[in-house]
Amino acid sequence: MNMELSRRGFLKAAGAGVAGTTLGAMGFGEAEAAVLAHVRPFKLTTTVETRNTCPYCSVACGIIMYSKGDLRKGEQADIVHIEGDVDHPTNRGTLCPKGAALKDFVHAPTRLKHPMMRKAGSDRFEQVSWDFALDRIARLMKHDRDANFIAKNAKGVPVNRWTTTGFLAASATTNETAYATYKVVRSTGIVAFDNQARV
Amino acid sequence: MTNAWTDIKNTDLVVVMGGNAAEAHPCGFKWVTEAKANRGAKLIVVDPRYTRTASVSDFYAPIRQGTDISFLNGVIKYCIENNKVQWEYTKAFTNASYIVKDGFSYQDGLFTGYDEEKRDYDRESWDYVIGDDGFAVVDPSLQHPRCVWNLLKEHVAIYTPEFVERVCGTPKAKFLKICEMIAECSTPTKTMTSLYALGWTQHSSGAQNIRAMAMLQLILGNIGVQGGGMNALRGHSNIQGLTDLGLMSNLIPGYLNIPTEMEENFGSYMSTRQFKPLRPGQTSYWQNYKKFFVSFQKAMWGNAAQADNDWAYDYLPKLDVPSYDVLRIFELMNEGRVNGYFCQGFNPLLAFPNRAKITSALSKLKWLVTMDPLETETSRFWENHGEYNDVDTKSIQTEVFQLPTTCFAEEAGSLANSGRWLQWHWAGGTPPGEAQHDTWIMGQIFVRLRELYRKEGGAFPDPIVNLAWDYKDPGEPTPEELAKEINGRAIEDLRDPTDVTKVLVPAGKQVLNFSQLRDDGTTLSGCWIYSGNFNENGNNMARRDNHDPGDTGAYLGWTFAWPLNRRTLYNRASCDVNGKPWDPTRKIIEWDGTKWSGFDVPDIAPNAKPQDVGPFIMNQEGVSRLFTRGLMRDGPFPAHYEPFESPVDNVINPKIRGNPVARVFQNDVSQFGTSAEFPYAATSYRLTEHFHYWTKHNRVNAALQPEFFVEISEELAAEKKIERGGWVRVWSKRGSIKAKALVTKRIRPLMCDGKAVHVVGIPLHWGFIGAAKKGWGPNSLAPFVGDANIETPESKAFLVNIEPTTPPSEVVA
Ligand code: SF4
Ligand code: SF4
């Protein structure tokens, strides 16, 4: 066996992970032939690899996502497999039962797909367009801010507080999202600003 | 974390208290296993439950939840009494020798200056004696009766092994065995690491739990060294980042502060932020505060922030209370004083304590906007789910928008892990349906709001219409644009102050790191501590060189760690006063007579003489603090207080309930239960198969742990005639839930102050939406009170009652 072959390269060449255990007994060529005869072709051979990190806990294990289709070429890309990144210094390819099931997060039946609105008193969500939702939200914000913004306190000091609308940010978003969020929220004077670090 | 996951392999002793790393952080816990296998390191677990971490420990001791300070103060006392102190480190690198003002004292469970009415202290006396030269007075011999060391000795004197047994329920012999194991790490060549998580933070004295261990680590000389440190394992993948970037009521990115209304102008704001060194020659790095603040204001408001308007100081909101944290805002919401609310990837209906109050509060909103990749209970709080969410839908007048966002697999950007590594990731999948990036949603809301203010005017439009938002597509700033802005750039040519003909950074170019930021408006930077993340060398967070020279676990070529790519904070303290490593086999850096260098980025100026400049460069003292002056609201030393709901009284002073300065809202006082009515000590925890309320949407994890349960001892089950796997009702003063009973040997009754205390464990992963079975979580029962310093809710220690019951109506038994 060519020891230079990387683990993943080997798997691709051998056709399936199960080949490893029978190698010693049968010899490489025979094992390969035997395996190929009854196992479907290795599912990752025509996929595109993308590096990412597990979004759950702050160990932040490295992962490799495999997709049918290349997002960077503007194609529709469907994630078909996610595994640990062996090059990552922290997890060295391992994943826990959460990270190992990440593909099912990506494709969960309860993933949200469309903006929805629930009217006052209603018992259901109704699909709305992004434009409708965003225009309405901006209008609701302005309405509340204009009505309740505290420009100065009793002493006449500018305090620029908006206390009647609040914003909970997410500590699973990226730093870049967080920074953009910070700028928008602070520019309005919102002081009820928090994230999961509090709880 | 002061250190990194990969550094844990260098330790000799791992103490897991206030966490359960084997289950909650499995792939990081692997480094504990490495240390055990390769160095013969030992693992101690102290926890109310015999966790999976405990199952691979060398020594386990039980403890009653909420009493960690007594335990740790007891260990400190043991180390002092048995001369198990890293003396050279303690004398040179802590404030042990500093003389404290005469007024300061501690009596009957309270420090000087307590005002019962205000539930607050006057902290004036909690400070050093300052000499005529303007510096703190010290006594390096530690003989002065008022030096920190002698006050500490006095303070911990009551925490005897007998006291610990009485309060914590930890048998004396087990406690002493742990003391012995920990005390061994007082030599310069043995180190201990502390791994903790929410088991320490979710208490009304949470911050002081962590302080107590930090103090122990300091007197053992374990901060700044390989295999040492205070390692907050942290929860969400970017909880570190969101804190660093200041997405909290009172913060500006990089741990700067939002002004209070007492700070009427920029002058008064800066007057308390001069940070003059308290000892000669010390770095006191916060002296650079103004540079970071002005650079932030330039990133926010560009040309609208000028010297003559105090860098748009008046654009910032000014606080009238310490913070509008989530407990305060839900209190206000419940009073009908909040109209609109955004939840961006947050599920408060299952996360915040006293769910009945959260539901009531959300029902009083005029509008709610949620943004998530998955369904959340919060976005459907108005929907009736029988017993699981029994609301009167019609009467709830809240307009709700549920906005679909992309998930990790469909977006690029960086996350800060617990070791402060900013790791970049790339998008690989097409988002489902119309799901959009959070940056797109924030950009779209902003440009629409700005347009309304431009067209119509309104309340103080200036900070909105003048916000620096010059991204290529204002409707969606790219992650790269944002990361570069966080790093910062020169607005004008930055010239060398010693030779003005030399341009260090031309206008428009990225600064190298925060050392180039200025306070004259010529630089901008969104978050100074991150600066260096994306400079003219490119995106350093995307680096993937996994070599590890010296096999130290530092991995300097892997992504970027803040600050300045430094992997171990305070690493100057890994060397003695002369700059030589305490343990040559565990060298991080070293002084070669002219400069510092080694395997990590030195946490000290490269040419700072070791004898002159202390290692704790962020502190005005240059040393670390065993006594925190007035920096914490509830005392300069950690002291024992019971949780607000406790099975026993505070044995130091039975009149004190909970943390005496923790904020309690009037409405919640009547909602605290007593042990007469609610005899059992409940706690909350997580399971390895689930992550909060996300994985219940995922069929694999939902199958692994399908159903909500509560965990109780065999003794309690026998006492209450509860069957294994039978249905139980668990209730507190605030709510009632049903669950299957998991009867185990992992939880045992504890003997505290002469009485048996039964612990009830409540995991938190179930709700009423998703692939798993419907259930509840501990937040239906937990009390609405937080830590005295940072308002983290006390979700780890409260009182409940329990009885056998019938299944919920929807469940076929
Ligand atoms: S599959 Fe489950 S039991 Fe097996 S190694 Fe992974 S986590 Fe452990
Ligand atoms: S795979 Fe497990 S240990 Fe690794 S980051 Fe994800 S949740 Fe954490």
3D architecture notes:
The complex is a heterodimer of chains A (199) and B (813). Chain A is an alpha+beta fold and 199 residues long. Chain A folds into two domains: 43-106, Phosphorylase Kinase, domain 1, CATH 3.30.200.210; 116-198, no CATH class. In chain A, 33% of the residues lie in helices and 22% in strands. Chain A contains six helices and eight strands, in the order H-H-H-E-E-E-H-E-E-H-E-E-H-E. In chain A, strands 1-2-3 form a three-stranded antiparallel β-sheet. In chain A, strands 6-7-8 form a three-stranded mixed β-sheet. The N and C termini of chain A lie far apart (53 Å). Chain B is α/β, with parallel strands linked by helices and 813 residues long. Chain B has a domain at 666-812: Barwin-like endoglucanases, CATH 2.40.40.20. In chain B, the strands form twelve sheets. A six-stranded mixed β-sheet of chain B has the order 27-29-28-33-26-32. Chain B has a five-stranded parallel β-sheet with strand order 3-2-1-8-9, sandwiched between helices. In chain B, strands 12-13-14 form a three-stranded parallel β-sheet, with no helix packed on it. In chain B, strand 28 (727-732) and strand 29 form a beta hairpin. The longest helix of chain B is centred in the middle third of the chain and has 19 residues, at 438-456. Chain B is globular, with a radius of gyration of 27 Å. The two termini of chain B are 46 Å apart. One iron/sulfur cluster (SF4) sits between chains A (54, 56-57, 59-61, 91, 95-96, 98-99) and B (25-27).
Largest sheet features of chain B: 6 strands, mixed
What is the overall shape of chain B? globular
User: Number of helical runs of chain A?
Assistant: 6
Q: In angstroms, what separates the terminal alpha carbons of chain B?
A: 46 Å
Named at the architecture level, the CATH assignment of the domain at 666-812 in chain B is Beta Barrel
> Order of strands in the sheet with the most strands of chain B?
27-29-28-33-26-32
Number of strands of chain A: 8
Helical amount of chain A? 25-40%
Mean of residue pLDDT values of chain A? 88
Cα-atom Rg of chain A, whole angstroms?
26 Å
Count of separate DSSP helical elements of chain B: 22
Q: Indicate the CATH class of the domain at 666-812 in chain B.
A: Mainly Beta
Number of structural domains of chain A: 2
Task: Give the CA-based shape of chain A.
Answer: elongated
* CA-atom Rg of chain B in angstroms: 27 Å
Which ions, cofactors or small ligands are bound in this entry?
A: iron/sulfur cluster
Provide the CATH topology of the domain at 666-812 in chain B: Barwin-like endoglucanases
